[in-house]
Amino acid sequence: MDWLAVNARRRADPQVLWPQVRSVIMLGVNYGPDRDPRAILTQRERAAISVYAQGDDYHDVIKTRLKALARWLIAQAGGDVKVFVDTAAVMEKPLAARAGIGWQGKHTNLVSREFGSWLFLGSIFTTLELPRDEAGDDICGSCRACLDSCPTSAFPAPYKLDARRCISYLTIEHKGAIPLEFRAAIGNRIYGCDDCLAACPWNKFAQAGREAKLAAREMLRAPELAELARLDDAQFRALFAKTAVKRTGRDRFVRNVLIAIGNSGESELAREAAARLDDRSPLVRGAAIWALSRLMNREAFDALAAAHEKSERDASVREEWAAARQPEAAIG
After folding, report:
1. Which residue numbers are catalytic?
2. Mean per-residue pLDDT of the chain
3. For residue 2, what pLDDT is reported?
4. Which residues contact 90 (CB under 8 A, 6 or more apart)?
5. Does residue 170 surpass a pLDDT of 80?
6. Which helix (H) or strand (E) holds 286?
């Protein structure tokens, strides 16, 4: 069974979530960037964080606004309401397309004539009977820009996503070691990926978002990988307070940073990876091994392995050492 089918089973019809619902109000909030988010991909010593995660957590910002709108609706027309912002099994994108906000593009995300691919979605379920809007038309045509831009070929066909290959899934949702076959393609993307969104030609009509709380924090636009690799748990939580990044936790985040360090080609960053070989987290230690195998010459790496490998008790980390010591593994 493919991922879309699994996802469809997990996502519920509105009346399954709330039998009393009679209408669903869909809303979109523009978070369009003020620059091309792909530009940072050439700055290999710096980290690329997905546009949506560079500001305050959209769940908190939008839910507050939805609740205010819902209270107004009750005051004006009565009835009962529930609000959702990616917080329940709501099929936001198909519902938004049916409401006329846009259409689901070939990258499976919503596309708007006015805002391109840069929309957060929220919904208000209500017991009120409201008139329906016309559904949005799919006007992707023969364009394949989003599909062809994917670094890991995560689209087996238009309108179909294999999440197991998606960099956003791998760097945010995936809890274990990132599969070897995808590590090089991740580049310096440490939280999410904007490539398929940014490639959409409809973005030529997009506008920069105007919600101040969703605007990018300057320190998250292009942070240095070296600084991020040094974060302990308290520092991680302090730096990413009130952002979506905090949901990954420090260990998964530093795992991603070390993958980016391994892709940087910057030998000076090897010291940052080496400092993580004694990290308390096996996930971090394993990623550090891979990064070092990419940045060090074979002789130096083998000497490092000899000093650490025998004392390693975690099976997954020992597997990383073994894989990294294969002749084809190191590029230094």
Report:
1. 86
2. 92
3. 30
4. 11, 12, 14, 17, 84, 123
5. yes
6. helix 282-295
Q: From residue 20, how far is each of 13, 125, 128, 132, 209 by CA, in Å?
A: 12, 9, 9, 17, 35
pLDDT beyond 60 at 1: no
Measured between alpha carbons, how far is 315 from 283 in angstroms, rounded to an integer? 11
Cα–Cα distances (Å) from 185 to 157, 193, 220, 232, 324, in that order, read 20, 11, 22, 26, 17
Tell me how long the chain is. 332
CA distances in angstroms from 126 to 13, 26, 69, 97, listed in the order given: 14, 11, 12, 18
pLDDT tier for residue 45 given thresholds of 50, 70 and 90: very high
How far from 238 is each of 53, 56, 196, 233, 249, CA to CA, in Å? 15, 13, 30, 9, 12
- Strand blocks (E) in the chain: 23-30, 48-49, 81-84, 103-104, 110-111, 119-126, 189-191
Nearest to 130 by CA among 210, 60, 73: 73
Specify the pLDDT at position 222. Answer: 97
